Amino acid sequence: MTDTVRDTGGGPEVTVTDTEGYSPRLYNEDLAPATERKWGAFSIFNVWTSDVHSLYGYFLAASLFLVAGNTFKFLIGIGVGSLVIYYLMTLIGKAGVRTGVPYPVLARASFGTFGANVPALVRAVVATFWYGAQTSAAAGAIVAFLTRYSGPKHLHETTHLFGHSGLEVICYLAVWAAQLLIISKGMETVRRFQDFAGPAVWLMMLVLAVALSVKAGTLSFSVDMPAKDLAALAKNATGLDVTPGSFAAIAAIAATWVTYFAALFLNFGDFARFTADEKTLKKGNVWGLPVNLILFSLVAALTTASASKVYGQVILEPAAISAKFDSAFLVLLAALTFAVATLGINVVANFVSPAFDFANVAPKHITFKKGGLIAAVIALLLYPLHPWDNAPSFVNAIGSTMGPIFGVVVVDYYLLRKGQLNIPALYKEDGEFRFQGGWNVRAFVAAAVGALFSSILPTYGPAGYGATLGPYSWFIGVLVAGVIYFGISGGKSPLTAAPAEAAEATSETPAEPVA
Questions:
Q1: Does residue 208 lie within any of the structural domains?
Q2: In this structure, are residues 265 and 259 in contact, taking their beta carbons and an 8 Å threshold?
Q3: 239: Cβ–Cβ under 8 A, 6 or more apart, which residues?
């Protein structure tokens, strides 16, 4: 097999055909550096349209709109957050382009060849949770349409299973199976699907906004509600205990928006590694992140405000809004589009990552497709428990676990190793990344302390700590873990290899691939 990667300086490609010494406990073809790089800027753009244009993405944007108090302040908060997201995603994306390896393999450089399974499985757990949550939301959109008719409505009202109606179970299984079919075809099918799903959802969002604006008789970007009631509704929807429209509210909006992407900050490299170069990556990210996110949020604000005037109440779920339409065709179109949107985000954010993460645990036995199947089965088993009913608080919870891991990985790759990575050693048990029996204790100490500050203290710390700093738990985790890891590593690359091997790993003209 031939592995092709690029060196850090963007120089010529370095090719290696010798995989001798690669451990079957660390290597299979799915985890190998990407050799085919067919993803252009449009595909990267649609990673983001597929990721954010979901039912929960809309719900979060609409909820944060209430926190802002008005559209101008909302756009400031979302705009600042979107720029931060662009910078961080491009940072981790570059590592993917340069190395060509998926997230769990990159994590071996900082956590150790086998220690990387811990941050990989943490990411996999988050993904399976969101897989179930998004699938349930898509099923709900279809149920909202079907219950307009007597037969499905009767089934919905008279049959119950696992705490759900019979109709809800059927729709959940249908959406679940459709997603599994897509992922079973591999990453190229994922790319083609998202290239369709992203634009389709954008079109439906515009239709929804225009239809409501026409019905309201005006373009509205405000919700007519007493300040006290607005504050209560905003707090209930987001968990943010701030005064709508205040500086604290704007800052919390930006922080919450960034935290929403906490999981993908880790594994965006899973997609970026299939792009040809960093220029393509940046172009796709510019259009897909600050531009797309701000426009999407503006449409969500317009839709929420218009719906409040048409129906006399604030409705944050787009499926619930579309279900009120008189036109059965529009309701059906909305239901199908929201289902496609959910398929898109689940495939991008919640299938690809655990597929690689589970494969990383036992590469000899688990392929990319089998890893995706494991994630899907776990999400199916969680359905009777529906743990995603309290999703808003879960956003901050994942931030507290994802942040420290991100901090360690980024500090290790950019500050300690200066972007120089001995790629073949990532697949060797006795190579540079063996550390202490395959585990880098320093990385785990830093991540644990970071998690302590970002998760436990907001809950059990001094009174008021959680309310004030809760929205920033992800940032706290990144900063604390990153600083500690840099400090206990002495500001130097934590090499454990022989001097000759270490010199080879950081050479500008390596004999083996260095990224």
A1: yes
A2: no
A3: 392, 393, 396, 470
